[in-house]
Write a structure and sequence with these properties.
Blueprint lengths: L1 E6 L2 E4 L4 E9 L6 E7 L6 E6 L6 E3 L7 E6 L4 E6 L8 E8 L2 H5 L5 E2 L3 E6 L1
Length: 123
Amino acid sequence: QVQLVESGGGLVQAGGSLRLSCAASGRTFRNYAMGWFRQAPGKEREFVAAISWSGGITSYANSVKGRFTISRYNAKNTVYLQMNYLKPEDTAVYYCAAEGAVANLVASVADYWGQGTQVTVSS
């Protein structure tokens, strides 16, 4: 089992920045690719970003490329999502997820999910 706890969400004005964190515990963190997803009201959950166990491979949704950066610090069992130039359409609950491979996360497949953290971007 892997337990994931997100933090760092909040209310920010359009054009602002937030950094989300996801702390993992349980089975060996470094064995997993990690990803971020989001779900806006009335919409399906969608892939945002993913990173391989080593950090050497990353993948982003087209809607966030150039604005969001995913990173991880294995020594602290933590994955981050730096979000810059936020837009109102980025408003959603953001979820952290763990899986064996980046490709699976891109396909919205994950073994473990966090509870989510709310991000609200005002115009």
